[in-house]
Amino acid sequence: MRRPVIIYIMSCVLLVSTSACNKFLDKEPDNRAQLNSPQKVSQILASAYPKANYQEMAEVSSDNVGDIGINALDVPDWVVLLADLYFYRDAKGSGTNEDTPEGYWFGCYKAIAATNLALKTIGEASNPKDYTAQRGEALVARAYSHFMLVNFFAKFYNSASSASDPGIPYVTEPETVSIKQYERKTVSYVYDMIEKDLLEGLPLLNDNAYSVPKYHFNKAAANAFAARFYLYKKDYAKVISYAQAAVNENSFANNLRPWNTLYITLPLNGNGSLQKTYSSSTQNANLLLVETNSWWWLTSGQGRYGSTPGIMNTVTGAEPVSGGDWVYPSSYIANGHPHVPKLDLFFVETSIGSGNGDGWQMIPLFTVEEVLFNLAEAYTYVGQTEKAINLLNVYLSTRITQYNPATHSLDANKIKTRYPTADLAQGLITTLLAYRKVEFIHEGMRWFDILRYNIEVTHKSIDGTQTVTLTKDNPHRVFQIPPTAQLSGIPLNPR
Fold it and tell me: Which of 17-26, 47-56, 118-127 comes out lowest in average pLDDT?
């Protein structure tokens, strides 16, 4: 494992006018002096997406993991990080290494720095209309990184308290110093700024500006982002509007992952395998993909704290409400470590033949599956439960082994039988959350449902000597502000 250089909120990668950074890098990394065309600004925007991976920190904090009791990792830092995440301890010794909270913090702010440099360049251009698509991408990308930061490092959005809950710095200008003082302001302020950037940028996007649209904020991905944003704010009418703009409601069946047709026929590893296909730009379900510096494939399948056989049975066993069996396959990377082979790892040597280098993983930031779930959830809350059930049946048609609509369809009676309640909407939400938990195994999305619904999580050691419960008031629902960020005057979260 190669340790990256510690970076403050502004990376010296973007301060090319600073002689010390130029000397350190010995190259001009972003051609800032020649940023005189939309094409060159587009090159800058290749860095506008976090190259850090949040999946490990989110997934290991969730109820999708347990203590397997067997550690197959030989990197001490990875072992410590997994234990800290699992037992809700601030990861003090992990630094900015791959997959750490601090690494993700700085990965997001590096991406934000790229968007601000692009926006400054556009603002100073003599022909700003020629940069319309680039401006749209920069604004939406800036909104996304701040959105992820505020949901990890501040209290989750709550209309009753967010006007006073401390947020995270919303950075809108390129820095000219390596360490700048910031204030957190409030969660409401950060959400307002996210909304401003998102709504201003979304109409400017042009998918024709990209050679591979799925590596950028294309229109579908940006609308999916807007649907998630408003779901977290509980503005369900807007969720419906943006979800429908992201994916035509009549086209979900053709764009969901083909698990029980194509995917089930793919080998679990090697060329053409499931794990290589899952995060490919050829898959209709992937709306936005980003390459991240990560070892999550290894640590998820070999670390002591991961998907236990019991947890994996809920993913590969019986579907709990409608009937039938989930189609998801499972494999073992190491003894006792069951794993759905949807993650892949690319190893890049830092020097040829050295055996040392970086792990890289392509991850989907937005998918058709999430859009479907968000739309179904919004329909439920506005009283259109039949539409929500219809959407979930489309989903199940691609997820149940030998799916038969006559026997495997979801309906109100099955929901009420599985989750006895007079409130169909509540049973439907419980069903939907159960499906999301299975669908996004290993991907970290369960963490946000835990935050949204104040779900309690209990993590135990396999020998019973340690038990930690993440209650709804536990301060570790919020990740701690990284130690190096405190040099910028950012106060810690209470513990």
Answer: 17-26
- The three-state DSSP-derived secondary structure of 393-437 is HHHHCCCECCCCHHHHCCCHHHHHHHCCCCCHHHHHHHHHHHHHH
Q: Is residue 60 part of a domain?
A: no
Assign residue 125 the CATH number of its domain: 1.25.40.390
Same domain, 141 and 286: no
Instruction: Write the CB contacts of 190 (distance below 8 Å, at least 6 apart in sequence).
Output: 146, 150, 154, 167, 168, 170
**Nearest Cα residue to 143 out of 213, 224, 215:** 224
Give CA 332 to chain center in angstroms: 24
- Using alpha carbons, list the distances in angstroms from residue 484 to 101, 179, 183, 473: 12, 10, 15, 26
Judged against a pLDDT cut of 90, whether residue 35 lies above it is answered with no
Residue 9: how many CB atoms within 10 A of its CB? 23
- Residues 318 and 275 placed together within one structural domain of the fold: yes
Q: Is 89 inside any structural domain?
A: no
Residue written as token pair 């601030």: 90
pLDDT(340) > 90: yes
Please tell me the pTM assigned to this model: 0.92
Q: What is the mean pLDDT of residues 425-446?
A: 98
Question: Residue 28 pLDDT more than 70?
Answer: no
Q: Residue 338 domain-assigned?
A: yes
Question: What count of Cα atoms within 13 Å lies in the side-chain half-sphere of residue 319?
Answer: 30
Per the model's pLDDT, the better-predicted residue between 202 and 353 turns out to be 202
CATH number, domain containing residue 383: 1.25.40
User: What is the signed CA dihedral for 135, 139, 140, 141, rounded to 10 degrees?
Assistant: 100
CB-CB contact of 106 with 79 (8 Å): no
Task: Specify the number of domains making up the chain.
Answer: 2
Residue 179 has pLDDT above 90, yes or no: no
DSSP 360: E
Mean pLDDT of the chain: 91
Judged against a pLDDT cut of 60, whether residue 29 lies above it is answered with: no
- Domain residues for the domain of 157 are 1-53+98-209
What does the alpha-carbon distance between residue 243 and residue 230 come to, in Å, rounded to a whole number?
10
Report the distance separating Cα 493 and Cα 495, nearest Å. 7
Question: In this structure, are 202 and 286 located in the same domain?
Answer: no
Mean pLDDT, range 436-450, rounded to an integer: 98
Q: Is the dihedral of CA 482, 483, 485, 489 positive or negative?
A: positive
pLDDT in tens, 458-474: 999 999 999 999 999 99
Phi, psi of 138 (to 5 degrees): -65, -40
Residue 82, in any domain of the structure: no
